[in-house]
Every structure is written in structure tokens, then in C-alpha cells.
Amino acid sequence: MAEESPLVLVHRPPTMKYMDEPLTRYYRILTTHASSDPLPLFLSRHASSVRAVVSIGRFKIDAGFLSRLPSLQLIVCTSVGTDHVDLPECNRRGIAVTNAGGAYSEDVADYAVGLLISFLRRIPAADRYVRSGTWAKCGEFQLGIKLSGKRVGILGLGSIGSLIAKRLEPFGCIISYNSTCQKQSIPYLYYPDVVSLAANNDVIVLCCALNDQTRHIVNREVMESLGKNGVIINVGRGGLIDEKEMVKCLVEGVIGGAGLDAFEKEPGVPVELFGLDNVVLSPHCAIATPGSFDNVVELALANLKAFFSNQPLISRVRLN
Amino acid sequence: SMESIGVLMMCPMSSYLENELQKRFNLIRFWNFQEKSVFLETHRNSIGAVVGNASTGADAELINDLPKLEIISSFSVGIDKIDLGKCKEKGIRVTNTPDVLTEDVADVAISLILTLLRRLCECDRYVRSGKWKYGDFQLTTKFSGKSVGILGLGRIGTAIAKRAEAFSCPVSYYSRRVKPDLGYKYYPTVVELAQNSDILVVACPLTDETRHIVNRNVMDALGAKGVLINIGRGPHVDEQELVNALTEGRLGGAALDVFEQEPHVPEELFGLQNVVLLPHVGSGTVETENAMADLVVANLEAHFAGESLLTPVV
């Protein structure tokens, strides 16, 4: 007699469908948006036996949600960030959480480098200068800033941060970092806190997790420390930066500029940024290549398979 | 004394360079004259040096017009706008500005690749226009791991190769001579290089042999999934063919810092999503332009002091 395949709850926005077909190869799926019932009612009615949830996009998984899933033992996130999940509550309940691991790391690292060079060399403005016909009329475009020799401080030297460092080395950048783990084997200079990282670098690249310790870690003091020629590149979460203060610092010239792929209230972006030419803006798409999505599908399935066969999870997140 | 030596600057290129030349020589600005004949009447016998750049050099006619010309010092590494044959014939020295701009140009080459593949300009426009509120931006193309083919493995080509390697890109090349020490795969023709590359980067000097080296055959070999990056000279690429290949979808995309008739760019390109267009900014940073200017000045001073040139071409 064939065993019924396990039931997996998929908590996702209606538009993000890429996991559905791969999941249905091995599991029965239940999607939270499919019903017209309010979410708590839907969960109570249909999800009491669910042992695994796949979390796509950044829909919150809070204590209330978790309380409707008494059998839950695993949350598989397709994002790297897990700040949308109540991790302490998962810890209390004994629910394991996995994330995207290194599935996106190359694409995000590539994008961070792209944001940095395109900021320094004014690429979007230069492209506009040509397309608008201004080059033909007005002559030479303004000069940019040399990348070689710049001191780049990486906040969060994990999978993504390490790949950013590796990419920037042949450009002649001098790499340093601040991270929760300082290792002897890391060949870059370590700074014990963000203020000293900012003080000693021309660029800071944010690629650490967002949690209670790192919320608004880039605040006014850090930005003043970075200084009027300093550049912030954010490929982490918008919440890493005190966004209101950052806008002021950009407008007032407290910092030199920024390349930003994330914002505090996406897709909302402070309108003051739209008129600035010392920012490069991006709609949170550092991960968004087909290859990255293929990778995360593979990883999510591998985590689920490990779970349902009592094997160690592949990309487990620490909950405390 | 050097102050009496006439140095003819062909066009505005750097106010720092102008000031440095003005301090040391009798600087004459070619663009201040409405007519060449007026300039020649007054100055033809006092010009000992010409300073040109990527857009304006010294052709045979100008060289013949300046009987006292001893040296042409170019504010660029490419010297395709200087009639080298005529210079050799007349014993006129030529210098350029290699090395000091290598990193900046290589940085722009990689930036062109990332900007094109990851659609950075469109991303920026997408946010600024408010469109993000209505939906996510499209998926873009991964750079890491793509095969990069470099046309011309000189200083700049090698610097591009080193950067591409850090993105785990397999690097191959076409060059006049095989360079086995560098460890990259060599292809004996540009078409084969293009066939075997996702990204083709033009980084060789412009000569009679390399004019239109990227022709229709090369673009077809690169194909609908391939992209062309040009940080060399506009005439390396058959620009009309390029426009056709892009508008017909035979070529995946192009990111260009140079064009055949700068600053004029084929308007058919302005509306395309799969192009990046830059106004010849390869060496365009304050630091590099100052270093280039210092090198131009140092070459001229060395020459008129009877010392060895720093970066001679001829």
C-alpha cells in the first residue's frame, strides 16, 4: 500500500509560484493564499497535521501563525534572511528553520560589486547622458572616482561577504571586515565594531543578517564616521540602516553616496532619494537570476527530503 | 628655456593638464582658432610639440604643416589618431599614457558586463520612476561563471582577465601572439573566440588590421545569447552591423564605451533594453586623468631636456 506523501504548507505571495511544481513532485501542498478564509481560520481548519512549511517571500511567520500549527517541526525559507520568522518562538517550540544557504551568494556578490563600481564611475548617469543626446551637445561627461586602492569594509563576512571580498581583491581594493566570527584564517583586517570599520574605510558593504543586534546598526554615528567621501553599499536588509538618517546624510553630504538594493519598507523608497545623483537604487533584485532560483529550489527540496527521512538538515539556521 | 617652446594642445581634455603645460611651455590651444590657416600663419614655426588625445591626434597634413615639430605626446594609450608612419619618416617622437589608466579601464569593462547582464541602469530607473510599487523587476542574467573571451591580451586585457577570474569566469583570448604563461585558452581566430564565449571584450589597439575586427561573422558567432563589450575604439566594431544585429535579435546585447563617430551614437540604440552606452569614460577618474597628465608633461620635459622618454611609442 503506497504511503500518502507528506503535506507541506506553502506560505507565499500569489505571484511567487516557482516552488509549487517542484514540491508537487514529492509532496501534497497546501497554499495559504488559495483560500478566502482568514489565515488563522484556514490554518486551524486545514493545517493542524502539517509538519513542514515552505516560506517564500517575506510574509511574516509570527507566534500567532505558529500557534495554529501544532505539528510544525520545520520551516524551509527560500530567502537567506530569516528576520520575518519569529526565531525565538521557533526555538521555544523546537521548530527547525532552514534558509537559502549559499544558493544566492554569487549573484548577490556580483551585484554588490556592480553597485559599487556603477556608483563610483557614475554608470547610470553616464548611460542617461548618452541616451538623452546630451553627449553630442555638451561634450565630456563628468569624472568619476577610481576604485583601485579604495578601502572596503565588509559588514558580515559570511558566504556573501567572502565572495564580495574575493571579487574586489583583483580590483586593488583593500579589504577589512567586522563580523560575528573573527577567524585567524581570514586574510583581511578585522575591526571590532561598525564605527571603527566605517572610520577606516572608504566603502562599507552591508551583507549581514538582520536581527535585534543589527537593526539600524548603520546609524548617524557610523555615517559620520564613514565621512563625506564614504560610500554605503547595502545588499542585506533595509533595516540594517537607519533609513531616515541616511537620507539626511545623503542630502546633506555627511556621506558621499550609496548603492542600495534594500529598503526599510519595500517597495516604498524615500522620495528624497529619487532626485539625488549620489545614489544608485535597485528594487531588491540582487538574487534575481534564473540560476539562483534553480539553486534555492534544489536546496529547499534537499532540506525537506532530509527532514522527512530523518537526516541532518542542509542549511539549518541558528536560532539563538 | 622651455617656456618659449610652443606646445599645441589639440582640444580641451583636462584643465589640470592645461595648467601644467601652461606653467612650463608656451601653450597654444588649437580650439581657440576659427580657422586652421590663421593658426598656422601665426604659430607654424614655433610648435615643437603636439598634445593630442583619443579623439584628436595628428594626421599627416598637420605633421607636414609644422616644420619644427619634434614630439607628439598623447593624453591616451591608444594612438590610432596619430600618423605613426609619417612620424617615423620625419623622426618625430610619439608618447602615450599606458599603465596609469589600465585599472580604471578594466574596471569599466567589468562594470559594463555587470551593468548589462544585471540591468543596473534599468533597475535604478525602475525604482526612481515609482514602478516598483506595482511589481518586482524582471529576472536578469548571472555573470559569475560565464565564459569571457578577450580580444587583445595586453595590459588592459590582462587586467580584465584577472578581474573576471575572481567571478569564476573561464577566460580565453585572441591575440597576435600566444601568451602561454598566463594560463588562459588561446583561440587562433576571433570567430572561434566568439563562438566559445558568452561575453566578448574588445581590448586591443586600433590598427589597420583591427579595424572592424568585430564584423557580422563575429557577431553571429557570439549569437543571440552572447554579449559584446567594447572598451577599445569605436572602429573595432562594424557599428552599422552591430545596430542591425541588435535590432534583429541576432546578438544578445552590447555594452559600449566607444563609438565610430564620437560623440555621435546611432539613435537606434537609444531605445534598446539590451545595451549600455557610455560617453568614453574608460579612464575618466580624477586620479587617473591627473596621472595621465603628469606623464604627458614628464615626457615633454624629458624630450626637451635631452633625456630618455618615459613611455615612447615611436
Top keywords for this entry?
heterodimer, A: 320 residues, alpha/beta, Rossmann fold, 2 domains, B: alpha/beta, 5-stranded parallel beta sheet, 34% helix, 15% strand, globular, NAD(P)-bd_dom_sf (chain B), NAD (chain B), D-isomer_DH_CS1 (chain B)
Detailed description of the structure:
- The complex is a heterodimer of chains A (320) and B (314).
- By secondary structure, chain A is α/β, with parallel strands linked by helices.
- Helices cover 33% and strands 15% of the residues of chain A.
- In chain A, α5 (105-120) packs across α8 (159-168).
- The radius of gyration of chain A is 22 Å and the shape is elongated.
- Chain B has 314 residues and is of the alpha/beta class.
- Chain B contains eleven helices and twelve strands.
- In chain B, the strands form two sheets. Chain B has a seven-stranded parallel sheet.
- Chain B is globular and about 65 Å long.
- The mean pLDDT of chain B is 97.
- The interface between A and B is large, with 57 and 53 residues.
Secondary structure elements and pairings:
The complex is a heterodimer of chains A (320) and B (314).
Chain A: E1 7-11, H1 20-24, E2 28-31, H2 39-46, E3 52-55, H3 63-67, E4 74-77, H4 87-93, E5 96-98, H5 105-120, H6 123-131, H7 134-138, E6 151-155, H8 159-168, E7 174-178, E8 189-190, H9 194-199, E9 203-206, H10 220-226, E10 231-234, H11 243-252, E11 257-260, E12 279-281, H12 290-308
Parallel strand pairs in A: 1-2, 1-3, 3-4, 4-5, 6-7, 6-9, 7-8, 9-10, 10-11, 11-12
Helix pairs in contact in A: 5-8
Chain B: E1 6-9, H1 15-24, E2 26-29, H2 36-43, E3 47-53, H3 60-65, E4 71-75, H4 84-90, E5 93-95, H5 102-117, H6 120-128, E6 148-151, H7 155-165, E7 171-174, E8 185-186, H8 190-195, E9 199-202, H9 216-222, E10 227-230, H10 239-247, E11 253-256, E12 275-277, H11 286-304
Parallel strand pairs in B: 1-2, 1-3, 3-4, 4-5, 6-7, 6-9, 7-8, 9-10, 10-11, 11-12
Helix pairs in contact in B: 1-11, 5-7
